[in-house]
Design goal:
- The protein has 423 residues and is an alpha/beta fold.
- Helices cover 48% and strands 13% of the residues.
- It is built from 14 helices and eleven strands.
- The strands form two sheets. Strands 1-2-6-7-8-9-10-11 form an eight-stranded parallel β-barrel, surrounded by six helices. It has a two-stranded antiparallel sheet with strand order 4-5.
């Protein structure tokens, strides 16, 4: 009897752990979606087609692995077969992924490809053939219940894919990546659905008018964000004019996992995470979710440190009042540093480099004022070396020296003895 009770107790414990694990994962999904829809949401890490280092792209296993590595969202390609079955597959890369050529996905049935093995990573003849076969979207949605997916769908397949997502009950945790869709088509797609789909669109180019116009019209049509791309490292999509159009919580995504359309020079690492976030991007498509998640963690820690510094040096600090030639400059530098810190702290998606800069400038400005006030007690406050003051000092010294030389020569002439010409 005791053994039966022990087994029963153990079973309850196991079920509790599993239930808690499921709740925690589901809770993470809810938090990610809250951040995605927030007007001041944090930076989100988007894995590009899952963990492609250890699994074929666009597979359930790769999705779950990327999620475990820290991805908030996983972007997957979806194609639709001839018999209207959505599958996780990039139609443009199908011939590289399958162990045999199958032609156009839209021209074959699901049964034709169901048992074909997939190649590792992004495929290609040099890649190993795995035991993995293509996943249907329906199965994938069931097996990834506690993840947020972004589905890269051809415009013509949006309705079919939407119905599959709706039937699975996942419209609140799936984002449709609709590509370079026209605003009127997008508006029709969104307005025709009983449950509003979440949508990201895509713009590639380097003409400022086109970029601004597309972002504006796309967001007005109901898109939740836009992914921007260009080959130009200094392209308009990295500038303030385009980024200023992302208002009211609209998401701006960049593709660091695909450097050829992210300014070419940018790479999938912390340096460029910071570069893009400082420009206003708040979603990064990456092949390095673990590295981006660590960067986001460091950013959160640095922000907390800045909050403490701001409280100590601004909220709980009273500026000393004293008269010194340097005080006006120091006071202005302190006000500027304080304003910068406030701007960074009010941003829920700041770049790590901006936080570190704000922290350094605020502490430097504070130290200058405090040191100057302390020196006042010794009668030496206000002595600030600046370029204008150096020039003034040189001119004064030069003038004094010239005057002394002139006086010396003039005095010498007056006191000189007359020459005796008789000799």
């Amino acid at each position: 009897m005791k053994r039966i009770i022990s087994y029963f107790t153990l079973l309850i414990m196991i079920m509790s752990v599993l239930a808690f694990s499921s709740f925690a994962s589901g809770d993470k999904t809810g938090k990610v979606m809250d951040e995605f829809l927030s007007e001041n949401g944090r930076t989100l890490c988007v894995s590009d087609r899952g963990d492609c280092e250890n699994y074929p792209e666009n597979t359930v296993e790769g999705i779950l692995s990327a999620y475990e590595q820290g991805a908030d969202i996983v972007l997957c390609n979806v194609s639709v077969t001839k018999d209207s079955v959505p599958v996780l597959l990039d139609s443009d890369n199908a011939s590289q992924m399958f162990s045999k050529d199958i032609g156009d996905i839209s021209a074959v049935s699901y049964a034709d490809i169901a048992d074909i093995k997939l190649r590792l990573a992004h495929g290609g003849g040099a890649r190993d053939i795995t035991d993995k076969t293509v996943d249907t979207l329906s199965d994938a949605l069931k097996k990834t219940q506690n993840t947020v997916l972004m589905l890269d769908v051809n415009e013509n397949d949006l309705d079919t894919v939407y119905e599959t997502v709706k039937q699975s009950g996942r419209t609140d945790s799936v984002i449709f990546y609709a590509g370079h869709i026209k605003s009127d088509t997008l508006e029709t797609f969104i307005s025709s659905k009983s449950e509003k789909p979440l949508v990201m669109t895509y713009f590639k180019g380097n003409v400022i008018f086109s970029a601004v116009s597309y972002v504006k019209s796309s967001l007005e049509a109901g898109a939740d964000g836009v992914c921007l791309a260009t080959k130009n490292p200094y392209g308009v999509v990295f500038g303030e004019t385009v980024m200023s159009k992302f208002t009211s919580g609209a998401r701006a995504m960049a593709m660091l996992s695909r450097p050829e359309i992210c300014g070419k020079i940018r790479r999938d690492n912390a340096t460029w995470f910071s570069d893009l976030i400082s420009r206003g991007y708040n979603m990064i498509l990456t092949n390095e979710p673990k590295a981006l998640k660590e960067y986001i963690k460091q950013t959160d820690e640095a922000k907390k440190k800045l909050e403490t510094t701001y409280a100590d040096l601004c909220e709980n600090y009273t500026l000393p009042e004293y008269k010194a030639s340097s005080y006006r400059d120091y006071k202005k530098a302190y006000a500027d540093a304080k304003a910068k810190a406030e701007s960074v702290l009010s941003d829920n998606s700041p770049a790590l480099s901006d936080i570190i800069s704000a922290q350094s400038e605020l502490r430097y400005a504070y130290n200058n004022i405090q040191n100057d006030a302390d020196l006042l007690k010794n009668g030496t406050a206000g002595v600030t070396i600046t370029v204008p003051r150096i020039i003034t000092a040189i001119l004064v010294i030069t003038g004094v020296t010239a005057g002394e030389i002139f006086i010396a020569k003039h005095t010498k002439k007056k006191g000189a003895k007359p020459v005796n010409k008789s000799k």
